Structure prediction request, 136 residues.
Amino acid sequence: MVKSECEIEFRVRYPEVDQMGYVHHSNYAIYFEMGRTELLRLCGISYREMEEAGVYFAVVRLETRFLAPAKYDDILTLTTKTTRMTRARIEHEYKLYRKSDNRLLTEGHTVLASIDKTGQVAIIPDSFMAKIQPVA
Prediction:
């Protein structure tokens, strides 16, 4: 199944927050990874399957715009969209909302490069390309 967007929901856990009870900035990259992983699953692909085929993705750009803090025990909704894809790169956009008031907390963007086990740029196989499509 070809999908270009997914939505996941999760609760902020205590180890993800700082002393003020706000999500530490380093966790947003992890949240974005969770969104990408689920989007791939919806497309019928797993990271394990890709790695077994010798395809790896390295984050070469990560941009995050913080609009409001997420707090301990908040339930968050993350939307992840594939926005651009070439034979060796995939770009995603993210929007993170607090469920209780639907407030947009964070926006993000990543660029992933397809590489092989040695770190050299690698072409994304056709079998994976056919399952991943950017938002039109």
